[in-house]
Amino acid sequence: MLTALDVVGNPSSVHAEGRHARSVLETAREQVARLVNAKPSEIVFTSGATEANNWVLAAGWSEIAVSGAEHDSVLVPARANGARLIELPVTRDGVACVEDLVTKIAPAGASANGGSLVCLQIANNETGVIQPVAEVAELARSLGLRIHADAVQGLGRVPIDMQALDVDFLSLSSHKIGGPKGVGALVVCDGVELRPLIVGGGQERRLRAGTENVAAVAGFGTAAECALRDLSSVARIRNLRDRLEAGVLRITPNAVIVGRGSPRLPNTSCIALAGASAETLVIKLDLAGVAVSAGAACSSGKVGESRVLKAMGLEPELSQSAIRVSLGSETDEKDIEAFVSAWSAIAAASAMAA
Ligand code: PLP
Questions:
Q1: 271: DSSP letter
Q2: How far apart are the first and last CA of the chain?
Q3: Is 67 a pocket residue for ligand 1 (Cβ < 6 Å)?
Q4: What per-residue confidence (pLDDT) applies to 82?
Q5: Would you call 270 a catalytic residue per the annotation?
Q6: Residue 107 banded pLDDT, cuts 50, 70, 90
Q7: Which of 55, 327, 70, 32 is nearest to 160 (CA)?
Q8: Which of 110, 201, 266, 317 could disulfide-pair with 238, CB 3.0 to 4.6 Å?
Q9: Is the CB of residue 221 below 6 angstroms from any atom belonging to ligand 1?
Q10: Is 153 touching ligand 1 by the criterion CB < 6 Å?
Q11: What are 16-50's pLDDT values in tens digits?
């Protein structure tokens, strides 16, 4: 990124400096495309996944089907854009019902103007529960519907293959894979029409106006390359996550590992403990040097009732206590021991243990 900051040209300029900036951009496009097995020409850089999600949802659909566990950047524009909206329930284990998702939406045709869209995230951001996107896409495809998958939480944690998933649109965010914040992409499958959200310039194949943030995009590209390499450490991370959960359950047997009955991301653990407060747990763990988030924390940092956990049917007492623990590629045994000993100390001090 520092090298890219020194590239003074505008990627849309034809002079040598411009071409240099263009080559930085195109290298990153190839790196990001490789991570999700898409074609570089399908990658459209955006300011992040919020923009990518808003863009797809705002494209003039007549009907949209979404699971109730989607991120707000999908649900809010879905509710706002005047389309007939079908919000579908998820099971107690957090999985969207495949058939419900597509069969409740009339197969009105697959055009972006007035067609039908099905949205399903690859994995949930609060629980890590993996959704059956490939199955939904297959069914939706047979009904002539367009399919959008928010891949933000799954990116770099599970292999994501745009071709195998057979979705039309895929939203990506750089900062979830260790890249800079404020940059992401929408992968738009070749041949699929989507009207731009941001207009007034010919950048990104006329799909997203505005001079590209070359340094941020370069960082995203490098992060994508690292994420692809780090996918090989998935089994190690899962093992560590399982050890963390085993430690928690040993100390507090009444703790609930949310979504444990479903396929989950290897690095995510959503832990709920009736009687505890998520906010207090976050603060106490922070004081012990462990950074976790409250499962229900919204973007303002306040802890409210989690819409996702509520959709899963979790009792308020549990959902208000839920924290999300995320492991990274550099997490090691010592980190797990530190977490478990912090949990043990907090439990002893507050009589959390059953
Ligand atoms: N979708 C999901 C599932 C997320 O978890 C997030 C962010 O946390 C977003 C979308 C928004 O991404 P960004 O921060 O790049 O706008």
A1: E
A2: 50
A3: no
A4: 87
A5: no
A6: low
A7: 32
A8: 266
A9: no
A10: yes
A11: 999 999 999 999 999 999 999 999 999 999 999 99
